[in-house]
Amino acid sequence: MAIEKRTLTTQEYYDPLTFWLHWLTAALVVLLFGTAFAWNNWLPHDHFWRPLLQSTHVSLGILLAAVFIVRAIWRFTGGRNLPPELGIMGILSQVMYLLLYLLLAIQVGLGFLLRWSQGEAFQFFGLFSIPSLLGPNKSMVRLIENLHNYAAWVIIALAAGHTLAALFHHYVLRDQILGRMLHPISPATATPPARSSTLD
Fold first, then answer.
1. Where does 4-139 show beta strands of DSSP type E?
2. N or C: which end of the chain has fewer CB within 10 A?
3. What's the pTM value of the predicted model, to 2 decimals?
4. Cα torsion 158, 163, 166, 171: sign
């Protein structure tokens, strides 16, 4: 028996700011992982590409920290919270969201600690700098660097699982859960539903 594809109502879509913050976070996570993976595995230890990727990585990390803070504030103030999924799928979804939020917060903190434990300031695309709050500490650098790398792989794995779950909803369950993050709805065209404690 075929599963009927259901059309989402306007109240089942996220607002535009939530929509763009979600995809900006996803893009930054991929770019941060990609730049770090590239200089550690593909590029030689030269004086151009490696420093360029590292400075880009640091700048993107500052941007991710800012986006994460804005997203968290918006989430608990004006952002649209949709009703949670039911059953085991809903529970797994919420656990994954919570883990992703927690790991992103930890990863941002580790990134700052790593840079500061190297005794270096943050440069944001050459526009401004954030001075180091710590002195150089090689033992701390090694520890934080390992934690930073492990957290990055876990985040990528969870993000991949999140993507596969969305595709499963779209192509197998055909419930258009994916659709609400592909097409934002303007707040002017729909009345927000009752707020809940779910994460986007």
1. 122-124, 128-130
2. N
3. 0.74
4. negative
Residue 88 DSSP SS3: helix
How many angstroms separate the CA atoms of 181 and 168, rounded?
14
The Cα–Cα gap between 96 and 88 comes to 12
Rounded Cα–Cα distance for residues 6 and 16 (Å): 22
Q: Concatenated DSSP letters for 129-178?
A: EE--SS---HHHHHHHHHHHHHHHHHHHHHHHHHHHHHHHIIIII---TG
DSSP 3-state assignment of 128?
strand
- State pLDDT tens for residues 126-171: 888 888 777 778 888 899 999 999 999 999 999 898 888 777 766 7
Please tell me the total number of residues recorded for the chain in this structure. 200
Extract the residue ranges of the chain whose pLDDT is less than 70.
1-13, 43-46, 78-87, 89-90, 169-170, 173-200
Which residue is associated with the tokens 């859960």?
Answer: 177
What structural domains does the chain harbor?
10-189 (1.20.950.20)
- What region does 176 belong to: left with phi over 0, alpha with psi -120 to 50, or beta? left
What are the residues facing 130 on neighbouring strands? Answer: 122
Dihedrals φ, ψ of 129, to 5°? -130, 155
169-to-12, 23, 61, 106 alpha-carbon distances in Å: 15, 19, 31, 29
